[in-house]
Write the structure tokens for this entry.
Amino acid sequence: MLTVIIVVHLMIVLTMVGLVLLQKSEGGGLGMGGGGGSGFLSSRGTANVLTRTTAILAALFFATSLLLSIIAGMQRKPRSILDTAPRSGPVVPGVPVPGTPLGGPGGGVLNQLGGPQPAAPPSTTPSPAAPQQPAGPLVPQSK
């Protein structure tokens, strides 16, 4: 149905372009119009036929454009990615299953590329008598 409407629309467009090119220029802005008595109809009859045909084709072009936009609007339905179910099927080795992190349970791909993580240093609890060292450089403060 949609393909038929598009083909009819394109045929209307091509015919209308041809008819507009056949019409005589009335302004003579480029100095081209005019002409002699040669033609397949008289100048008055040609103008009436071409003008009416162009008007009919313009109305058909408008109607098919509206019809195509209405059909396109009906086919467009809002969708949410939350409503889509995860893909079920055979698990292929090496292909990640949707919804699981790429790096596996231990972290992401960047964690795997970084190599093994160093073990945490043993915690040293400072003795109460020892003064605590500042974590960073000291910044003078005004009082």
Q: What stands out?
A: The mean pLDDT is 74. The CA atoms of residues 86 and 135 lie 48 Å apart.
